[in-house]
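Minutes, project check-in
Item: structure for the 436-residue chain
Input as provided by the requester:
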Amino acid sequence: MSHPAYARLIAETHAELGFGNMAARREKVSRWESGRTVPELGTQLAMAHVHRVSEKDVRRLGWPHWLHLATDDDALLEQPWTPQGAISATRRTAQPGREGTRSYLAVTGPVLEAQIKKALAALASPQQPPAQDGHFVNPDRLAGIEARTRALEVQGAGSSATPMTLHHAARAGHRLVGRLLATGGYDRPTGTRLLLLATRTAALCGYFNSCLGDEAGAERYDLTAIRSAAAAGSRRHAAACMSRLAILHLIAGDARDALSLVNAAQSLTPRPSPRFDAFLLAREALALARLGEARRSTQALDRATALVTGAPDEGPPTDGFGFGIGIDEGHLNFGYGYAWHYLGDQKKALAHFAPFLAPSTAQVPPRTARRLLYVVDAHLSLGDLDAAVDSAYRAVDLIGSLPPGLADQYRRRFVPYLAEAPVSDLLPHLADHPAS
């Protein structure tokens, strides 16, 4: 349903429930979804009525923590923290048509805390891996899927393919693994391999979704990846997935939720490798920056930089999933830029972004167009509209055509400048195109 249609539906329901008349403006829906505005209680109750969520749950959980009850995420969250629950969750997220149904993070606050606690409990008392009868999963075929997954993970650091192309490939891999888990025949060691593959394919889908500006879709995949990692008994995979989910909460949610996820990830890896330790510290630093804690944030980034400087190349892990392996001084330099952006010092942020903006022949990370939003924000904060417009053009050039989530986020930045000629020329290039 479009934003205008949804706004009209909520306004009509608001009146029917006796809460009075309200303006049906699409801008309201955008502000609700972005987290910039908390709807009044009457508006929330009208929304809940439409989505068949009880008033009791709205009042008990509060905004935005009741929103997961308005989607099928509730069924996903209610899956048991067992191998079978992980298989069911993988199958649900692998089904076509599951993406693009919302544009906000639904699992937040106490609901997210409950999920974290359940994941930690599952990892503390791992169950036997799954095994079942069915058409035998050939080990050679499984090795081929692992190799293709690893290739996609490598391209996650830099690729000549567009993020949309990588997104389609990741989804295809995730659907295949979900089907093998649900219908294939395998012993327990193979069941563990399949669960780890499900973790990796879900994490890749989440990553590429976020690259395309679909944080809500990424959230579903990351939650599924955490569940699969817990079912496989892999603390390191679960920690990496939690840190990935933390980034989504930094982008589109609450920094306190991001910090909770990072702290949980750190608790799972008491003796991490230097680069993985730096990977987690960098995310902790950004959460602290979002919370306004400049000293603690820069200290965490300084510690991460010290760990990476001179650290040996760890090479690809034997079980794949090399998140954090590619972290280097350049990655952390951009982290400083993020931190200063969150702390409100846009000149310092741009100074750290500068190396990233320099012309390069290297392959482009799929997240580049998503990263450029921060550059646009920094330029606009400093009053440099031309530089902000140039950064937006660069994003379009990199990604080909913008999917709805990313296009909307770019357009939103330029709304106050619609009367300016450079923005009028830019807007046709920010028209969105379906990601799937």
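Outcome recorded: The mean pLDDT is 88.
No further action items on this chain.
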